[in-house]
Amino acid sequence: MTVLPLPAAALASRVATARHFLMTTPTHFDVTYVINPWMDPGQPVDAVLAGAQWSTIRELYLSLGHRVEVVDGEPGLPDMVFAANAATVVEGTAYGARFRTPQRAPEAAHVAGWFAERGVRVVAPTAVNEAEGDFAWTGEVLLAGTGFRTDPGAHAEAQEVLGVPVVSLHLVDPRYYHLDTCLVVLDDAADRAATVAYYPAAFSPGSQKVLARLFPDAVLADAADAACLGLNAVSDGRNVVLAQEATRLADLVAERGFVPHLVDVSELRKAGGGPKCVTMELRGLQLDDRS
Ligand code: ARG
């Protein structure tokens, strides 16, 4: 019997870095309109279970040593729990959101107001963009989705406001309407090449080539990994929080040295969301201490 050596990647030691997150309370979460193919107001949301699922994610972040800011959800804004859509914060600069749909439009001002109360100016966008729904920071470049929600003009605006290079990617499958439904940055350390996972079929042929060129060692998700929104995951460089159905994807990231944490997101998924959608990352941001 020959003993096969472990692939080099499996030996890589993954290092978690402390993160600063923002989450919005799920108090008013519901599915009352349809703005993506996951949503069906005829399928009831279990509000208590949704609340428990949100709390589990928050407590997991705290147990991993991360900081979590909590913004109150607003009545009449059932998707406001998806905090990732409200601003993009990179190296201390906050670029605001401008939602595609009227149903979600008021969320941007609520969250910008929360930042303002803590001494942070959110740069108001002129172009439609759903923030971290379509922007993913790799530590070096900002990957930017378009096709369903965020306008390509916002890619240029983000580059100007944030002062980081932006790479535009075209989304082609309406089930994967935001970049963060089909791509996750697993390792965003600035001093080495980023590790990402993505579902190729969600991208146009040209964007698939761009991704293959930028990330030749990416973890490639399959249709089943994507269909449970397994890529809507959050990584701290070592720990990866993802939907519990995404067992194949979890195994693949574990082979690369990451530690998967499987969570139940059944209720959030009824609105087309998962762990990443409910999590905004505050990169390099200093908030005024109000205590
Ligand atoms: N129902 C919400 C919408 O369609 C879900 C947003 C999920 N957020 C995300 N970052 N992908 O806008």
From TrEMBL:
Stored SUPFAM superfamilies: Pentein (SSF55909)
Alphabetical list of Gene3D superfamilies matching this protein: L-arginine/glycine Amidinotransferase, Chain A
Superkingdom of this protein's organism: Bacteria
Database matches in NCBIfam families: DiMArgaseDdahMtb
UniProt name for this protein: N-dimethylarginine dimethylaminohydrolase
Organism: Rhodococcus antarcticus
Lineage: Bacteria, Bacillati, Actinomycetota, Actinomycetes, Mycobacteriales
